[in-house]
Specification:
- It is built from three helices and seven strands; from the N terminus they run ββββαβββαα.
- It has 147 residues and is of the alpha+beta class.
- The termini are far apart.
- Bound molecules: 8-OXO-2'-deoxyguanosine-5'-triphosphate.
Length: 147
Amino acid sequence: MISESGVVREARPMLLVVAAAMIKGGRVLVQQRPEGTALAGLWEFPGGKIEPGETPEAALARELDEELGVTVDPAALVPLTFASAPLADRHLVLLLYRLDRWEGVPEARHASALAWADMAALRRLPMPPADLPFLEVLAPLLRGEAV
Ligand SMILES: Nc1nc2c([nH]c(=O)n2[C@H]2C[C@H](O)[C@@H](COP(=O)(O)OP(=O)(O)OP(=O)(O)O)O2)c(=O)[nH]1
């Protein structure tokens, strides 16, 4: 929407979400959204909404603890890319971080299932539309190439 002053305004309230690409041995961890949630059945990167007063990195460390039972040093979260897209009645801004080290073995505490996906598997999994551009960013990382 463009106001009379020419400023572009977004009518939908913003939804700020953080997520992690946890990479190990050429694979990335994805989880399946459970029944009864938005986008149920789709495969996503673990993470969630930033709560008031949280930094993005603190929010993501909290979500990874809650969802997977892993301990993460917020300083180990490396900004990778982001998505900006309409989502229902909101506008989603999804910040994707890369993570190569954590403590603990991820377990599905919220998700229906977890999978360590290589690039071929990732391309076959149904994902939320906002995540699709992430695949090309992840491809060189999963091939072990530095970016
Ligand atoms: N975690 C995550 N959320 C994603 C991805 N792609 C995508 O469109 N989303 C959307 C789905 C949801 O609308 C929103 C995340 O909200 P959520 O409900 O999972 O967050 P949360 O864990 O804080 O959940 P809750 O406490 O509100 O139940 O972002 C992704 O790759 N990872």
